[in-house]
Amino acid sequence: MSDTNVRPVPGDFASEAHIDNETYHEMYRCSIEEPEVFWAEQAKKFIDWESPWSEINTFDFMTGEASWFTDGKLNVTVNCIDRHLATKGDQTAIIWEGDDPEESAYITYNELSEQVNKLANVLKSRGVKRGDRVCIYMPMIQEAVYAMLATARIGAVHSVVFGGFSPDALKDRILDSDCQVVITSDEGLRGGKKVPLKANADAALRHCPNVHTCIVVERTRGLVEWNEKRDVWYHEAIAEAKDYCPPEHMDAEDPLFILYTSGSTGKPKGVLHTTAGYLLQAAMTHKYVFDYKEGDVYWCTADVGWVTGHSYIVYGPLCNGAITLIFEGVPTYPDASRFWQVVEKHKVNIFYTAPTAIRSLMGAGDEFVTNTDRSSLRLLGTVGEPINPEAWEWYYKVVGEERCPIVDTWWQTETGAHMLTPLPGAIDMKPGCATVPFFGVQPVLLDTDGKEIEGPGEGNLAIKASWPSQIRGVYGDMGRYQETYFSAFKGYYFTGDGARRDEDGHYWITGRVDDVLNVSGHRMGTAEVESALVLHPKVAEAAVVGCPHDIKGQGIYAYVTLMSGEEPSDELRKELISICVKEIGPIAKPDYIHWAPGLPKTRSGKIMRRILRKIAANELENLGDTSTLADPSVVDDLIENRLIR
Ligand code: WTA
User: How far is CA 28 from each of CA 23, 39, 369, 427, rounded to the nearest angstrom?
Assistant: First the structure.
C-alpha cells in the first residue's frame, strides 16, 4: 500500500469548512500544550452549565482514574433539548425513516421535549431514581432516543442492548448492571421481517427477578404475552404523564450510560461513560469531523445499540441542535438502492456508515447508486473497521461523485468519540488511513517492551493521556478495568489495536492485536463464541479465530473437537450454529466449522492461536515456531483439512 495515494480535500469544501489545515495544527497544539485554556474554551462553547467546574482535568494512567470538569453541574438533556427550544422548537430534531419506504416521520425539538419529559415522569412514577440503571432493548424507532434521553433527564443510567442480541445475552447484561426497568417494543421490523423483542425480553426476564417494570412500545401490534404486574404499554403510560419533568442536576462525573462490549476474555464488559466529558467530545467531533453546519441533514446508519449510535445519532447531533436521521431498516431492503433513496428523499448532506455496508452494496452494482440523486451529499464518513482501498474508491467516486471528502474515523466504545480522523477541510485523505489525532488525543505506538516508537513504524496503538470522553470504568469491576486497559503497558491506555505511522506522521490501523473479532464492524470476543460452542454436549473443545471475509471484513472460523465417539455431521454443524445464535445472537454465526481431531497446544496445554489464525487465513508459508508444540502432527492434519484455500 503506497502512502503516495494522497487525495487533497476537494477545493470548494476546504474553503468553507470550519477548520482548515493551519487552524487544525494551531488548535491541536493548544489542546496539548495549554489544555486548561483549550478545554475551558470548548466546554463553554459547546455546553450550557448550571455551575462551573473547579478543575479541568486530573488523571492517572497507572490506575486509569480520570476526572474532567470536576464539580461542574449540568444535565445532558438540557443541552440536547431545552436550550434549543427558544430558537428551534419547530425545527426537526429527528427524521425517522421506517423499514417500509412508505413510512417516515419528522419530530421537532418541541415534540422531542414533550416525549422525553413525559417518559421521564413515567420512569419516576415507577420508582426510577438518580443512579438507577435502565435497560433499553429497542428497534430503531424514535422511542429508543426518547428512552435514552428520559433516563438521562432524571439522572438514571441507561444500558442499551442491541436489538439483535438473544434473550440470553440480554439477560446477562440486565443482571450484570442490575437494571430493574426495561424498555422494549412489541416487535422490531427489519428488512420486512419481524424481530420478537418483547418475547425475547420475556424470556430474559424469567431470570431477572429484580426487574419490576417493562415498558413496551407498540410498533407492529404483533401479539405479545402480558404480565399485568410488570408490563406497561408505553402509549398508555405517556398519555397520563405530565409534559415537564425538571432535569436532575448532574455532576460532570456522574455516570451517563453503560454499554456492553466484547474483550479478549470472559463475558462482555459494561463500559462506563460519564456526563460532561463524554457530551463535550461527542458534540465537538460531530461538529468538526463532520463539518456539521446549521440546517444540515445528518445521517449515521448505525444502530443505537452500539456506541456509534449513542455518540453520533443521539448525543453529539442533538447537543449541536442538528437534524439527525434514524433508519429502522437495512441497506438492501427493498433493494440495494435503499440508502441512496433515503439520501434523495430526505436530502441528506452528511452520511456516515460502516465499510462492511459499503462492500456489500458495492457488490450489488453501480446502477443501484447511480439511479438516485445524491447531489445533496457534502461529506461521507466511515467507522468500525479498516476500509480497504477498493471500497474507499467506490464510496468516493460512485457514491460521492468525487465531490465529498471521506472521514475515516477510528475510535472505540471505550473512547466514547472519534480519536483519529481527518478533519475534512484540513487534512488530505489517504484511502484506508485514519490520519491524525483529534484535539487533545495523544496516540503513541509501543513496541512489545512498551517502549515508544519514534517516527515511521508499526506497533501497538496506545494513548498517553486522558481525553474527555474516556471510559471511566468497567461497571462493577474496577479491577477488570485496570487489568484490561492499563496493565499491558504501564502508564498508557492500551487500545487493543495495532497501527502503522507513515512518513507524514499519519496513522493506519492494522486491526486488533488481541482476541477480539470485528465481524461486519461488530465486536466479538473469540472466547464468547467458544463458550457458546462448548455448551453442546458433543463438543469437547473449541477454538475460534477470525478469517478474511470479502464483505464482513472478518468472518468467524471455529475449530471444533468432538467428544470421543462422536461423529461430525451436517446436522451437528447446524446445531452448533444455532447454539451461537441462541447464546449471543445472529451476528455470532460461525462462517466455518472445521472438525478438528486435535488443537495445536504447547506442552503446558495452551492453544497456539497464532497457528490457528494462519491456517484459517490459508497463510501457510510462515507458520512460525512450532517447536514448542506438544504434538506437531496435529498441525499437518489441520492444514490438510483447511476450509479456505
Ligand atoms: C475497529 C466502534 C480501523 C478497531 C466505534 C477498534 C476501526 C474497534 C475503525 C472498536 C477505523 C473502529 N479503522 N478500525 N476507522 N473504527 N475500528 O468498540 O479495531 O465497536 O478497536 O467501536 O473497531 O469497535 P467498537
Answer: 8, 11, 37, 13
Q: Where are the beta strands (DSSP E) in 28-175?
A: 55-60, 65-70, 73-74, 92-97, 104-108, 133-137, 157-160
Grid coordinates given for 168: 440470553
The answer to whether 525 is a known ligand-binding residue is no
**CA gap 446, 433 in Å, rounded:** 19
Pairing of strands 65-70, 457-463: unpaired
pLDDT tens per residue across span 274-323: 999 999 999 999 999 999 999 999 999 999 999 999 999 999 999 999 99
pLDDT value for 1: 46
Atom of ligand 1 nearest to the CA of 496: 21
The answer to the question of whether 96 is labelled as a binding residue is: no
Please give the C-alpha separations between residue 494 and each of 105, 412, 485, in angstroms, as whole numbers.
42, 11, 5
DSSP state of 349: S
| Paired sense of beta strands 255-261 and 473-474, if any | unpaired
Separation CA 292–CA 284 (nearest Å): 10
Q: What's the Cα-to-Cα distance from 132 to each of 135, 158, 399, rounded to whole Å? A: 10, 8, 44
Q: State whether the beta carbon of 518 lies less than 6 angstroms from ligand 1.
A: yes
Distant-in-sequence, close-in-space partners of 379: CB < 8 Å, separation ≥ 6:
13, 290, 291, 349, 350, 351, 404, 405, 406, 407, 424
- What single-letter DSSP state applies at residue 324? E
Which residues are 349's β-sheet partners? none
- The residue whose grid cell reads 508444540 is 629
Partners of 562 in the β-ladder: 539
Q: Which residue has the cell 440508502?
A: 339
ipTM above 0.90, yes or no: yes
pLDDT tens digit sequence for 458-509: 999 999 999 999 999 999 999 999 999 999 999 999 999 999 999 999 999 9
Q: How many residues does the chain have?
A: 645
Measure the CA–CA gap between 378 and 434, rounded to whole angstroms: 19
Is 142 near ligand 1, meaning CB less than 6 Å away? Answer: no
How many other C-beta atoms can be found within 10 angstroms of the C-beta atom of residue 613? 17
Largest CA distance in the chain: 74
410 CA from centroid of ligand 1 (Å): 6
The DSSP code for 140 is S
Q: Was 539 annotated as part of a binding site?
A: yes
- pTM higher than 0.90, yes or no? yes
Which residue of 463, 523, 587 sits with most ligand 1 atoms within 8 Å of its CB, as the best mutation to test the pocket? Answer: 523
